[in-house]
Amino acid sequence: MAATLASNRNPTDRNADATVHIAQLDEKVTDALLWELMVQAAPVRHVYIPRNRITGDHFGYGFCEFHTPLDALYAAKVLNWTHLYTKPIRISQSTVDRRNQDIGANLFIGNLVDEVDEKLLHDAFSAFGPLVEAPFIMRDPNTNQSKRYGFVKYSCFEHSDAAIAAMNGQYVCNTPITVQYAFKKDSDKRERHGSQAERILAAKGAEARRTAELENKLRPHTHFSDKPPKRISAESQLRPPAPYPGYPPGGYAAYPSHHPDYHAQPQVPNWARAPPQQYASVPPVGEFAHRGMAETSHIGWSTNRQFGSRTHTGRMPPYPQQQAPRARAPRPVPDEAAPVYRNEK
């Protein structure tokens, strides 16, 4: 089972943004049954139902933690008012900012008939704005009979004012209802919500929340290791790096000091250049000038000559044709009949 059925788990360890609060649970609802219901909406991480340590009975509510806040919001919208053992459950997102959201935009709805339930109130009053909590109808704990009044809580006074202006005196199930601000619980003077002081405090709180959200958006990114490292294969390590755009694959490596300098293109770094190669044509002038000319044979070409094996075009010269030896004049023979002059004493 992917989720954890832990009734003794500390609720403070959960992710509040991804947790929903389930109220009005029947006494026969168990952790496994609640997990089976919640998993129909999204994958469940933990299910927690507080229980009495002595009797083992739960207190009529529980918590379900999902993996993401979006899953929790979807489950609250889809599974809200689902009947378990003929009893509708109330599902709302459990956030740590519940006190900040309770700004005082609480409405009292009176003169409700028995046919009106929480789902009908939710469908009627959620049209004016999002509700902080699910609507609540006071009922008898023994008979579950409605006491004919309930409460609705909004997140801002603009939505509650619109609901009062539109719904007060309207007919619901053929009976006119009364909609007004509810009394404060901690007030001895029977003061109602919606006073000017509450509106000023609510406006300041909304401005502070907007400022905090803006600061979080402008905060620099510090999670540099969120993305897993890229695996480098052995083939990619042996492969030479790709050249810069606009340069040949081999680079200008034949004459590194004479490659054209384009101002519109960046210089090629050393690591992108090809290794130096042998000279394929005439060597630089003056490098072999001190060695002088090599002796040649009668055919005009010799393998012992410096750079005699290559021409200026870098190709081998054609083998010269063999020439016939020159005819030499015969050596003159002295004539025996000719007088010989000798120095005689």
Q: Count every beta strand, where a strand is a DSSP E run of 2 or more residues.
A: 9
Q: Spatial order of the strands in the main sheet?
A: 1-3-4-2-5
Overall radius of gyration: 50 Å
Helices and strands, in order, run as EEHEEHEHEHEEHEHH
The secondary-structure class comes to alpha+beta
State the end-to-end distance.
147 Å
CATH topology of the domain at 105-204: Alpha-Beta Plaits
CATH class of the domain at 105-204, anyone? Alpha Beta
The poorly predicted ranges are: 254-258, 296-300, 302-314
Which whole number gives the mean pLDDT? 74
Task: Give the fraction of residues assigned to helices.
Answer: 10-25%
- Largest β sheet strand count, sense and barrel closure: 5 strands, mixed
GO molecular function: RNA binding
Family: Belongs to the SF3B4 family.
Organism: Gracilariopsis chorda
Main location: nucleus
Would you kindly provide a written description of the structure presented here, covering whatever features stand out?
- This protein is an alpha+beta fold.
- Among the domains are: 16-93, Alpha-Beta Plaits (2-Layer Sandwich); 105-204, Alpha-Beta Plaits (2-Layer Sandwich).
- The protein has seven helices and nine strands; from the N terminus they run ββαββαβαβαββαβαα.
- Strands 1-3-4-2-5 form a five-stranded mixed beta sheet, with helices on one face.
- It is elongated.
- The N and C termini lie far apart (147 Å).
